[in-house]
Amino acid sequence: TGLHGFHLGAAYAHRTAADDPIHIVTPLQSTVIDTPDLDGRSGRWLHRDAGWTWGPVQIGFEKVYGRVDDIAVPGGRADLQDLGAYTWYAAWNLTGEARGWRDGTWTSGPWCNSVRDCEFLPEGRWELAARFSNVNIHRELFDAGIIQRGAGPSDPSGGSTWQSNSYTLSLFWEVSTNLRVGVEGVKTVTEDRMAIYGGTKRDTSFALR
What we know:
Layout: E1 2-3, E2 6-15, E3 23-25, E4 31-34, E5 42-54, E6 57-73, E7 76-93, E8 98-102, E9 105-109, E10 126-137, H1 140-143, E11 163-176, E12 179-194, E13 200-208
Antiparallel strand pairs: 1-2, 2-5, 3-4, 5-6, 6-7, 7-10, 8-9, 10-11, 11-12, 12-13
């Protein structure tokens, strides 16, 4: 929904069986949480988001909460009650184009009074964006031996941690309506030492998109 640049969203999913693994990666696809098949009785997921747009500026927040019930652990069964992630993000069109919601997607065009008057992704647009992301998982899975710190079942060289924070800064250029290029820097900080980060808790990487 939209009201003077403000929007809200929500989604809910329920599963009668939660047998699949949980695989979570950073913005640059480094594995930070990797579980085996959980063999849970049921699972549920709740997603919420909110944001505000004013002219060339957009800020927003997203939060996901998950729960898996009745997981088999050594000596019995347990509930995974805390599987959460949230993101804060902000973006600014440096060349001044406004943002608006039209036809089910965010569009950018000249700063105009009506979104319908705005062009879709004009050529020459420059965008600066920043994002903070957090993900965490219940430490009981580590304590029960379901997840091993420093080695994940499908990515033994990567490892798993109970919490990870990522800081992202991006710069994009709209070369044409069909071509967008950008450079992105991501710094990730984990609560556990990770093999994929050389046995440290921090990583700084860059990508050309």
